[in-house]
Amino acid sequence: MPRFISGSRDGTARIWQFQQTEWRSVLLDMSDRLPSSDSPAEEDRFMKPKVTMIAWNQNDNIVVTAVNNHLLKVWNSYSGQ
């Protein structure tokens, strides 16, 4: 099933898929952190994360997002985890 991804300066990306006559999306929030992560970095308190680039891996199972705070985030393209 065809899918596409969009990224935004609001700090989110969405993986879109057309299902049963409507577009549905999986939300990727750049402010999400791993459960084991410490509190947000000092710079995150002053700068809202924004998506700067997005890419799929070779078989479309993984999405990589680049964020304006110099982080790369790797996401499962089906679950958004």
UniProtKB/TrEMBL annotation:
InterPro entries on file: Bromo_WD_repeat, WD40/YVTN_repeat-like_dom_sf, WD40_repeat_CS, WD40_repeat_dom_sf, WD40_rpt
BP terms from Gene Ontology: cytoskeleton organization; regulation of cell shape; regulation of transcription by RNA polymerase II
WD repeats: 1-26, 51-81
An example Gene Ontology CC term for this record: nucleus
Keywords: Repeat, WD repeat
The name this protein goes by in its record: Uncharacterized protein
